[in-house]
Amino acid sequence: MSVARDAGLQEGVLRIVPLGGIGEIGKNMTVIEYGDDIVVVDAGLMFPEEEMFGIDLVVPDVTYLRQRRHKVRAFLITHAHEDHVGGLPYVLPEFPGVPVYASTLARGLLGNKIKEHKLHDNPLIALEPRQSVQLGPFTATPFRIGHSIPDAMGLALRTPLGLIVHTGDFKFDHTPVDGKLSDFHELARYGAEGVLCLLSDSTRAESPGYTPSERTVGEAFRDIMAGLDGRVIVATFASNIARIQQVFDAAGDFRRRVTVIGRSMEQNTRIAVDLGYLRYPAGQLVSKDRIRDVPDGELVIATTGAQGEPMAGLARMANRDHRFVEIQPGDTVIVSASPIPGNEEMVGRTIDNLFKAGANVFYHTIKRAHVSGHASQEELKLMLNLTRPRYFIPIHGEFRMLVQHGRLAAEVGVEPGNIFIIENGQSIEFLPDGSARRGQRVEAGYVFVDGLSVGEVGDVVLRDRRELAHDGMFLIVVTVDKQTGNLVGRPEIVTRGFVAEVDQRLLDGAMDRIARSIENPGDHISEIGLLKAQIKDGLSQYLYERTKRRPMVFPVVVEV
Amino acid sequence: MSVARDAGLQEGVLRIVPLGGIGEIGKNMTVIEYGDDIVVVDAGLMFPEEEMFGIDLVVPDVTYLRQRRHKVRAFLITHAHEDHVGGLPYVLPEFPGVPVYASTLARGLLGNKIKEHKLHDNPLIALEPRQSVQLGPFTATPFRIGHSIPDAMGLALRTPLGLIVHTGDFKFDHTPVDGKLSDFHELARYGAEGVLCLLSDSTRAESPGYTPSERTVGEAFRDIMAGLDGRVIVATFASNIARIQQVFDAAGDFRRRVTVIGRSMEQNTRIAVDLGYLRYPAGQLVSKDRIRDVPDGELVIATTGAQGEPMAGLARMANRDHRFVEIQPGDTVIVSASPIPGNEEMVGRTIDNLFKAGANVFYHTIKRAHVSGHASQEELKLMLNLTRPRYFIPIHGEFRMLVQHGRLAAEVGVEPGNIFIIENGQSIEFLPDGSARRGQRVEAGYVFVDGLSVGEVGDVVLRDRRELAHDGMFLIVVTVDKQTGNLVGRPEIVTRGFVAEVDQRLLDGAMDRIARSIENPGDHISEIGLLKAQIKDGLSQYLYERTKRRPMVFPVVVEV
């Protein structure tokens, strides 16, 4: 990758640099820079992809920010989903004192993170929709927007060169569960004022039409619950407070009580209740250790694990591995989610196990008890037509989604030359004369969180894990006499993940090959490095010939 | 698993044992047994799942057949897809002389497999739809059925206890590309005659309605090609001859020539042409090394890799790693497939790379240029209503699909108690009095093909690979003086996949921990095994404390 020779920022130029979330789903982070000032929108994490063996989390590479530490004025949070805030614990320690701005619920949910990670050096400041804060030359004003978590906001950023609108994650829900509409009027005002650049959520740019209202999920819950006399278990995302509200509402209509099970969901529910984002009649919530007192026909269990996560509530209940709930015949399970790409197999397996345990299961292909939190094509066009931006950068999505979103923008009249389909790290610069161009490309890859370390595990370690995973390892310890160069005793072999039992002939052949490596040392006998290389090459080749497998071969030579 | 204490087969009892393909997608195999005779329907393979590290293929466990080798009369092949015939090379060598029955095209496609794997001990015998063959007490008569490969057949098996109908993979296509209809009349006759048991394909039992005709794909091809002046690249399955026929037909309508690229697709195309299953005007096919002579606007390239397979045609073209074709701006790519669950990420990445290389891409979410080869719910009900079976076993599909298919059967009137939702290895026994019951459960797990070995790699090897993949390995070689028990020289450390660079403090701490293990040997100094265990435990614990990772720790003690 060609990177980070810092060209410096020319005077009067506004630079936008996506450090995450574009060309990928997750670890969202956008940098906006002018003169000596930078604001950062969101700091998310990404869950590791299949081939990132053993990695716990992926966070954005903030080399660019680190090199400009003195410029960073604020982190502005659009909403408290992990792909927008999960990187904070790994990023903030490098920016002590820099404030984090967020809305009420986001601050509530962030509170725990801050406690857990001891991030007390960064003030967490309230910023509600339509409130403004001055940050160097920028005025930041969030606007309310619909999403699968209450209090989600987009961001209007007034800069010396014009207005930047960043949607965050959004959909337009005309009948939101909490009654709080997206701020169409404010968006229209921006359009009237003139928007220099729109950055807009592309997650569902491939989906035609409109994303249905969250309220339709409540209707599906009621359809399913009508007439049931067994328990109902609803699995969904822990942060989707509106969804949990609808579980309470639907349950109430059938005189059912609700218990919430799953660490993150219990925590979020508590915070949402405290802050007034979740309401239910006194006595409807029942604690999980008292559900045995509630008749099956009067209980709804809300839990986590709708993505098939093996350690979450639903999978454990399906596998009879849960402390409070075991699936029993007569149970009805609603998986209120669609599998995120990559999770299909895990979700399928969990559903299979629920059926095997005797439950009736409603899931994405059978009964839609889920809607997306992201805007479909008609909503994306509405966003474009309300804000009428001069320049457009599709964000939040895989490359193909950015391409589709770019097409929509062109369809509604954005000048095709003013649409930037870019990848993470590609900066866009806005010039005082009103023009814009691709600027330098900066470091914006993956930083891996693995165990206690951040950034220490890199591509080499992953490549080794991949190789070890593929054909295992074959280690040989050879003892040689320092004086004569002769083999002393029998070599010792340790092998794992290669074959179940090393067959004696294979072993003899390997020994033979090694003995030959040692007997023909040429004039290199004194060089252990060369001897090792000979053993490694000879042995690798031999094992491949005999098994068509390529375990990692490690020769160790002990001189005595 | 409780298995294979063979209860023996009672006289007059008919037994059906699925050894693969139910509760999973792939490695289809059904055993039908009566008295001293067995016929086997299909012998497929399965591609490894995500957590089967390094495994090349999965084939059925045929322990049950091996124990009854003398009974096996025939393998009956429904069609030549890998999940129905790919296991033959690994299974047939155990059953020399047992004939394989298949239709014309299946025999053509199997020919190569037989040559490659030298399976000349098993006669490959023609069996066309409506022809019958007597196999001990069984009369087998295949019937024509629609699917995503020509010449697909289901199987009517007349047994002493009644008629068994096995659908194979199927859909009802009223306008098939080759004009050969599913044999509705024969199926209706079975229904009139009386069907003891139906085994039917459940792959799409979750999909409401009808699966569209293959012919609709040709229409989509034409819609896309109309008015294009660049190259068109169509990626699809190598065995879908009807799809390839439609590429030729649509290309012909726009005066385009066609080249076929990809080893398996080239091979299949050649066989299909030879046998008369693929037709095009003389001169329309152009060899891949001559495509530079054809103007872009007059060329269609048919290729493999529609599932995003990194080594297949499409991914290599996207990555500029293909000998004959590099994607260039102006190219139009049609991905004529839907991602098989588990492949979504790979497919997505390939599409992203095609866009990045400048192509316009039509894929499953944008323009449906693909239809399934499997029956949706209305077709499944039609199959049930035509055959009117007394007993029903849904096959070919994940457990949840079997459950849905079972519900459809109950809806159309099959007695709920006569519907068997079972897993691989669960036998069903039919008694002379017309009743049926669950019989013994037999071995029917996975046999892994890994490199040259079949069945040698088992769960232990996979568990080791998984552990190695997760946190890597940490090997320590300690030399001790045989007499004194003292450490000689410095221990040697080899580590891979654990941390990028072993930090000196970590190393010192590890050494310290090891030294302590050795200094406090108690009275076990002479026991190397115990010493190793001490080193391993101490070191594992130390590394976990310091890094929160658990590499596999291998202690080697060399005595001198």
Do you know the CATH topology of the largest domain in chain A?
Metallo-beta-lactamase, Chain A
Determine Rg of chain A (CA atoms, Å).
Answer: 29 Å
Query: What is the count of distinct domains of chain A?
Result: 3
The number of helical segments of chain A is: 15
The counted number of beta strands of chain A is: 25
What is the name of the CATH architecture of the largest domain in chain A?
Answer: 4-Layer Sandwich
Task: Tell me, briefly, the overall form of chain A.
Answer: globular
Rounded average pLDDT of chain A: 91
Largest interface: A-B, 64 and 64 residues
N-to-C CA distance of chain A? 46 Å
For this structure, the quaternary state is homodimer
Biggest sheet record of chain A:
8 strands, mixed
Describe the structure.
The structure is a homodimer of 560-residue chains. With 560 residues, chain A is α/β, with parallel strands linked by helices. Chain A has three domains: 14-209 and 372-451, Metallo-beta-lactamase, Chain A, CATH 3.60.15.10; 215-362, Rossmann fold; 459-559, Ubiquitin-like (UB roll). In chain A, 29% of the residues lie in helices and 23% in strands. Chain A contains 15 helices and 25 strands. In chain A, strands 7-6-5-3-2-1-19-20 form an eight-stranded mixed sheet. In chain A, strand 14, helix 8 and strand 15 (299-303) form a beta-alpha-beta unit. In chain A, helix 5 crosses helix 11. Chain A is globular and about 90 Å long. Chain A starts with 13 loop residues before the first strand and ends with a strand.
